[in-house]
Design brief:
single chain; mainly alpha; 16 helices; globular
Length: 416
């Protein structure tokens, strides 16, 4: 900590972020276990798994409206409190859930809160943490959140193997912890920077106009969104296929599902987030994401190879190695997904940039699961992983070409 040379504001912000992050790990566990719970405990059908995959990105559709309000705000307290009550405590309705469709509804409310929490948290980092150490601070908090997630996932898996009906209790506990996380974040005061510009009038069209303006004038950011769309198509389309392959083809228990899909797939975030945060502070986002996107290809490749061995120990071992290597690349993706908008925002308020970034996930969040569902029903589940390889490769290649264009001065921000 001494090496970071935190000033009093940074130190207080960091400790509160760290405390909140611990509780955020519980909510993160819900998002990571939801598909396996839906498949095994609630007998979800393939189309319901596709819908389940869609709810997180689709719930982000309105993030630009929240982002514009956050951009104008001098305090973030009311946003976090709203998210705490309507996006976290609503998970307590889990005790009244009897089928997958009801499960999807409360998860939609939970994920919708992220369209508020993500840009608001992004604004805290931009306002209260220096650029030189921002990635490292985020990396440390991410490691703690991932550690919480991994420990929880293992014990939740063991608990559900004993009695799968206890998934309601685990989600209820996560609801309370998510509430605590939001209340902690609401206590962080941001260092408001006076731009000298009067606040413009706000109406429902204002965020749309601002979004178009950002994408039109900030071409590097627009290209960044295009590349993330390629990545998102590849990543999201695998999500409905994974529980089908892991549960039906490999016949894994709750514990083994969570060990592979959550623990091994996130171990990179635990071990490498601080280091990658430091690299992200010094690398251009295009160079950084080009390597990360390319690294993700190892997971669908390992699944395709494992399918040659049937439901065997060898197949499981190959998939688990794939999840582990995937986690290394995913640590980089997570860093870029959360922090790169600040880079592209420059001197502008990053909350609106991050909201644009979050909202665009809704577009691929609709298309990718539908494409996955079509491929599963028409050609079989393995086709999904083959097509995902193509999308991830495109994301990596275009990011590298964009990095070269930036270095050559051919991809720049236009004057407004």
């Amino acid at each position: 900590m001494k090496k970071l040379n935190l000033n009093p504001i940074e130190k207080k912000t960091f400790y509160l972020l760290l405390l909140g992050t611990f509780f955020a790990g519980f909510i993160m566990s819900v998002g990571n276990t939801q598909d396996i719970i839906a498949k095994k405990a609630l007998n979800a059908e393939t189309w319901q798994l596709a819908v389940l995959t869609m709810i997180w990105p689709v719930s982000n559709l309105f993030s630009i409206w929240w982002g514009k309000l956050i951009e104008r705000a001098d305090s973030l307290r009311k946003f976090f409190i709203f998210a705490a009550f309507f996006g976290r405590l609503t998970l307590l309705f889990i005790f009244y859930i009897n089928n997958v469709n009801q499960f999807i509804l409360i998860l939609f409310l939970m994920h919708s809160a992220n369209s508020i929490i993500i840009p608001a948290t992004n604004k805290i980092y931009q306002s209260n943490i220096r650029k030189e150490i921002r990635g490292q601070i985020f990396g440390i908090t991410m490691s703690l959140r991932t550690l919480t997630l991994l420990v929880l996932s293992y014990f939740i898996g063991r608990l559900l193997d004993w009695n799968e009906n206890l998934f309601r209790v685990t989600i209820a506990v996560s609801a309370i912890c998510g509430f605590i996380n939001c209340m902690i974040l609401s206590s962080i005061k941001i260092e408001k920077k006076d731009t000298g510009k009067p606040k413009e009038r706000y109406n429902l069209l204002t965020p749309l106009i601002r979004t178009v303006e950002i994408l039109r004038t900030n071409k590097p950011f627009a290209h960044f969104q295009r590349n993330f769309t390629f990545y998102g198509m590849g990543f999201i389309m695998m999500q409905p296929a994974l529980p089908i392959y892991l549960v039906d083809k490999l016949q894994l228990s709750y514990t083994h599902n969570f060990v592979g899909k959550i623990i091994l797939a996130n171990i990179g975030l635990l071990l490498l987030s601080p280091l990658l945060g430091k690299k992200h502070d010094s690398f251009h986002p295009f160079k950084f994401t080009s390597m990360a996107f390319g690294g993700l290809i190892v997971l669908p490749v390992s699944i395709l190879i494992s399918s040659l061995f049937g439901p065997s120990t060898t197949a499981v071992a190959i998939v688990f190695v794939g999840f582990f290597l995937f986690s290394i690349a995913m640590a980089g993706i997570n860093m870029a997904w959360n922090m790169s908008s600040i880079h592209f925002a420059g001197n502008d308020d990053s909350s609106m940039y991050q909201s644009v970034h979050v909202t665009i996930t809704a577009l691929r969040g609709v298309l990718a699961p539908l494409l996955s569902l079509f491929l599963i029903n028409t050609f079989g589940v393995m086709t999904v992983f083959a097509v995902a390889i193509g999308f991830l490769a495109l994301a990596s290649i275009f990011s590298y070409l964009d990095y070269r264009a930036v270095q050559a001065g051919k991809l720049v921000v236009r004057s407004k």
